[in-house]
Amino acid sequence: MRGLVKGLAVAALVAPLLSACVIYDSDAGENVSVNVTRNDAPPAEAIREARFADGALVARVDSSGCTQASDFELSVSDTTPAEITLRRTKEDLCKALVPNGVELRWTYADLGLEPGTPARIINPLK
């Protein structure tokens, strides 16, 4: 039993080191990082992808047909790069088949950021 507990403890310590990270880097100099795991952040919505395009954060999330940007709360850190976390605050109770999810947009102004500010998304990638 002691060996099992020790093995689980080692696995818990090594897991963050094995987590993946997707980084999007556009030609306009805007940066987005999507971290698959982060132990110090509260649970966040698992997203399919994120990018900055046309002066806005665009995130693809799961939907049952009624998901809107207003269903999410976004927190933005004042660090460099800014760390953005999307949290769903309203459950999508619709019954539509939306296999690819939906794209939601938030402008830099919505995020409280100056255009071109380096940023990364903290949400897990689905």
Q: What secondary-structure arrangement, pairings included, does this model have?
A:
Elements (H helix, E strand, L loop, with lengths): L1 H17 L2 E5 L5 E5 L11 E7 L2 E6 L10 E5 L5 E7 L13 E6 H4 L7 E3 L5
Parallel strand pairs: 6-8
Antiparallel strand pairs: 1-2, 3-4, 4-7, 5-6
Helix fraction, binned, reads 10-25%
Which structural class should the secondary elements be placed in?
Answer: alpha+beta
| SSE succession | HEEEEEEEHE
Low-confidence runs of at least 5 consecutive residues: 2-27, 33-38
Strand percentage lies at 25-35%
Biggest β-sheet strands, sense, barrel: 3 strands, antiparallel
Termini separation: 34 Å
Q: Provide the spatial order of strands within the biggest beta sheet.
A: 3-4-7
Radius of gyration: 17 Å
- What is the number of E strands? 8
Q: Report the mean per-residue pLDDT as an integer.
A: 78
The count of helical stretches stands at 2
Give the overall silhouette: elongated
Explain what the structure shows:
- The protein is α+β, with helices and mostly antiparallel strands.
- The protein has two helices and eight strands.
- It has helices spanning 2-18, 108-111, and strands at 21-25, 31-35, 47-53, 56-61, 72-76, 82-88, 102-107, 119-121.
